[in-house]
Amino acid sequence: MMLGALLGFMVLMSFILALWEIQIEGRDGWAAKSPGWRIEKGWLLKLTGGRPLTGYHLFMTLFILGMLHLPFFFTDWHWRRESLLFGFYLGMLLLEDFLWFALNPYWGIRNFRKGKIWWHKHWWGPVPVLYWFLLAGAAILIYLGRNAI
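Above: the chain sequence. Below: its structure as tokens.
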């Protein structure tokens, strides 16, 4: 029951985050026209799958990870809880990214395909390769942390 509620909350938060990011980026995905800094060359791009590292994405990631760790101010740290929270984060990233396309009036599902999205260079089947890694990581981590709640 609690796991189902957590997954439902993950979907809700992904939906909200996608809508928020659509408001910030509009038609220009991956913060292409953001006024913030971006690194487009160098070894750091190996960590981002070849996508530019932007200040927007770095600080958004740090904020979300920080907020997800709020429960540890009220409970003891445990690897199962950490696993569950990090699995939640990976699942939320996957859902939010897909929902960004699905809900974005400038993109829509019709444009969610290989060759149309410059920041998703590698695809496996109908989705970017990144989605498969996020799905596997989220599933494994949530499974390992399932008894933490």
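Strands lie at 38-39, 53-54, 123-124, 127-128.
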